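The protein record filed here.
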Amino acid sequence: MNHLTVIVLIIFVALLLSVVIRQLFLNRLSRQLYDAAYVKKDKELFELLIGSPQAKMVMSNVSREIMLLNFYLSIDDEACVTDTVQKLMKQRTNLKEAQTIYPASIGYLCEKGNPATLDVLNDLKKKYADSKDLNMLLMIYDCELACDVYIRKDKGRISDLEELLKADIDLNSRAIYQYRLAKLYDYDGNREKARQLLAEARSNTQDKNAKKKIDKILQGDWDLL
């Protein structure tokens, strides 16, 4: 084995070791992050870990911000969700990252009635409205529909939702659209129709929290709708 071959072999082994060590460290950090966020639910510890020099070495800025976003969504921290989404909007994201960021944040902010939702929607459309990806275009349509229902309270979308409910869609999607349609009928003063749609949505959804929320609404707490 000549001198050059030895050097090449040493470099190869060193690179292989660095990859293995990096992956081991990333796995360990991921476990620590999960434990802080979803076991201990320790916001301070999670933020400390995700902002550490070690995390910055093995994760991109976008990946770390997405993890922060998911954590803030899980603890229902509206201010931090809004701040993190605004930071992500300034970052360059790929299609997969965008499909993680926008529907989750828009759906959450819509539920909160947060007007910043429209800024997030506009950013999504600005960046991806010309996409050739069908899933992205469908996502944009659904995000805009959500904003029209929750933020703009556009009763003109009643017919669009009724058409969507004629399609062969899964039960979870059907429940979401029935709930949205119930909101619009309630805005339109037709509470009886809203009540009917909520009952149908309750039977279609598998989400226990959604069922509990609908139960409270049907029992008279219509401010929750």
The chain has a mean pLDDT of 89. Residues 191 and 200 are 14 Å apart (CA to CA). Residues 3-39 form the longest helix (37 residues).
